[in-house]
Every structure is written in C-alpha cells, then in structure tokens.
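Morning!

This is the sequence you dropped in the shared folder:
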Amino acid sequence: MGAVAVGIAAPIVRRRLRLRPPVVSVLAWQAPVAMALAVRRSPARDAAIYALQMWAYIAHYEMPHDDPEALLARLRVDYPIRGDTLIGVGVPPTLRLQRSLGRPGQVTRLDLALSWIHWSWFFVPHGTVAYVLLRHRDQFPRAASLTAAVFDLGLVFYWTLPTAPPWWAGANGNMEHVRRIMVETGEHFWGRAWRPLYDLLGGNPFAAMPSLHFATSVMAAHVLSDVGPVQGAIGWTYAVTLGFALVYLGEHYVVDLAAGLGLAEAVRRLSPAAQPLLLRAARTIQRFEPGMP
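The structure's back. Tokens below.
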C-alpha cells in the first residue's frame, strides 16, 4: 500500500520535485500492480486497479504540456488541415458544419446539446467499464483491458506527434477562424464555474491525434455490444453522436476521428494475439496475491 501511495503521489508532486518523466512513469505504472499484491481480490479491488491505471494515464496525458514551449516547437498543425480539406472537397467539415448550423455570437440549443454530449464523455468509457463490473463481472477483465489499452496506446501519439486541434489552428491563423463552441457554451451555461472546470480538465491542448474521445467511445460501444444488442445500440448511437459533436464544436478534425477509429479497431483485432502474453504476466502477479496458495 505504500507503493500504491507513492504511485498516486508522484504525478501530483512531479513539478514541485522536478521528477523526470521516466521516474514518474515507473512510479505511476507500478501502482496498479502494487494494489493487486496488497489487497485480496474483490470487485472493489478490481475497480481500484482500473482507477490507478487511469491515474497513470492522466499523468502521462498532461506531462507533455509541462513544458509548453518545447511542445509548441514540435507541434504539427498543417497535415490534419490538408486531410480534412480533401475530405470536405475544398472546405474542412468543421467549417462547413459551423457555417450551416451555427450562429456566431449566439449559443443555440444545438450547441448546448452537443456540448453536453462532449462533456458526458468524461463518464461514458469508465461508466461502461463500471457497468460491466457490476452486471457482467465475468466480462470485466476483457472490457477493462481493451479500454485501458486504447487510452494508453493513444499516449504514444500524444508524446511523439503533438497535433493542434481545429480551434487552435483557426485562432492562430493557420486556417479560417473556427469557433470553439464548447467553450462558448461552457461560459454561457456554467458562468463563473466554467474556468475552474476547464482548467481542471484541459491538461494538454495538443492531445488531438488520434481522438481518444472517439476511440474510447467506439471501444465502449464494442464492449456494450458484447453484453447485449440493446446496450450495443446505445453505445454506437452515443459514439456516432459524439463524433459529429467533436467535429462541429471545433474540437477535432475528421482525420482525428478516423485515426481514433483505427486505433480502437486495431486494439480489438490484435487483442487475441496479445492475450497469451498478458495472461502469463497476470498469472505471475496472481501467484503473489493475498490469499493465493
């Protein structure tokens, strides 16, 4: 449990103690394993292991932006604009949607509805995993592993290929102005509470390629489809609606969504090949779990 506590604390104190990223990585990623070795197996322990894995993800999601100037020096801006311009036959789909559906200077009901779809994402992938844990526990290891794999593999791209989203490119003269409708809606709906909420959740503005919003929602739809057709239909409806919202709101390019879809599908299709190695690692850890002979 001491190792768990260190794993939780490392991301919090990394700036104050000037911890190097490899040190933070080792300390954060060992925490889920330490939890497995410290506590007897139970649904609560399984949930804690998943939460610790996500805590490590959040730390690695934010760390590239610890040095904003260095991140800006590596920032890629133009290639998604070219891709979306091709998809939109001369005009990126975000601009087409905002021109046809939006009202500059005014927050509409559509803006509010799609912003809520976007905000709800912070609960949907993890809520899906929690639902499987509570109602279909035999499927939990696979659901949690697939979801975690999508999050974690997305980090590889965020570290190696920092990419500007449409709203940033529009605000900095790389393309025609793009409204960041989610922020406009947040300021209108939440008032003074918006800025603290945004600062809490917006840790890295250049974690855009691939869209993990879309990738993890697609994986959640697959997980729910494995549970049942009704659950699957709900999951896919949400994923498609979220994808539309992300493009309209100016948060992601269509090519970001395509890359997110590719990531989710690759994880799902390659999981059988990775399963033997993961099972061997799990059995090694399980030999030392409390209560195991």
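Headline: The radius of gyration is 20 Å.

More detail when I'm at my desk.
O.
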